[in-house]
UniProtKB/TrEMBL annotation:
Keywords: ATP-binding, Nucleotide-binding, Phosphoprotein, Transcription, Transcription regulation. It comes from marine metagenome. Gene3D superfamilies: 3.40.50.2300, P-loop containing nucleotide triphosphate hydrolases (3.40.50.300). InterPro entries: CheY-like_superfamily (IPR011006), P-loop_NTPase (IPR027417), Sig_transdc_resp-reg_receiver (IPR001789), Sigma_54_int (IPR002078). The keyword Nucleotide-binding applies. This is Response regulatory domain-containing protein. SUPFAM superfamilies: CheY-like (SSF52172), P-loop containing nucleoside triphosphate hydrolases (SSF52540). One of its GO terms (biological process) is phosphorelay signal transduction system. The lineage of its organism: unclassified sequences, metagenomes, ecological metagenomes. Transmembrane segments: none annotated. Pfam families: Response_reg, Sigma54_activat. Residues 139-249 form the Sigma-54 factor interaction domain. Residues 5-119 form the Response regulatory domain.
Amino acid sequence: VKNASILVVDDESNIRLLLEEILTEEGYQVTTASNAAEARDARLSEEYDLILLDIWMPETDGISLLKEWAKKGSLEPVIMMSGHGTVDTAVEATRLGAVDYIEKPVSLVKLLRTVDKALFHTRTKKGQQGKLVPPSVTPVGKSKVMQALRDQVAQVAKHDSNVLLVGEPGSGREMVARYLASFSDRSTEPFVTIMAEALNNENGGLSFSGSTENPSAIDRAQGGILFINEIGKMPLHAQNSFSDILKQA
């Protein structure tokens, strides 16, 4: 959910600058505040989609500020941050209305996942139109290569055709497949995964042909997407069966 406005509240200038740089490069509109007073002024002058709030700050700490805002009602999603957090602190923040909690030093992947998750659920609750992609299936990264990958996948998803994803083991091919599925017209239909090398002589037939009592992978994926992991390792007999199925599709 890009172009969202985010308020970052932290008394450490290096943390503020780091978060501002990361989130701005990801396409978010970022405002920073170094203390509770600046945060109050920022909220009075502008509405935000999300707030990143540090817990340990001088004068007024993050928990006290969150409690103050919660009492006034109409609180935007708040993600708490702390380098000295405890379970009790996290529980208290959640009780007051915080949607999540991030420990310092902040992990780039953890930060982006948490921000995306909070914004996704907020926009979903508001019923906003448009294709909302669950953060769990969104490839993370701000490099030109990752941006190009996301754009290319979104374009491919517009076409109803077979797709071959090539990459080293562990490179995230299934995540990309699910990301593609989320943009396609089949986004609400089943996404079925099978391991190609598991299609041996004993169970290969069961995966491609089934019955009412024991539906095949093809049957379960009807109308949706069938993801065959490590397709290059598919046994020869299974390749022949699958080839026949593709010809009939």
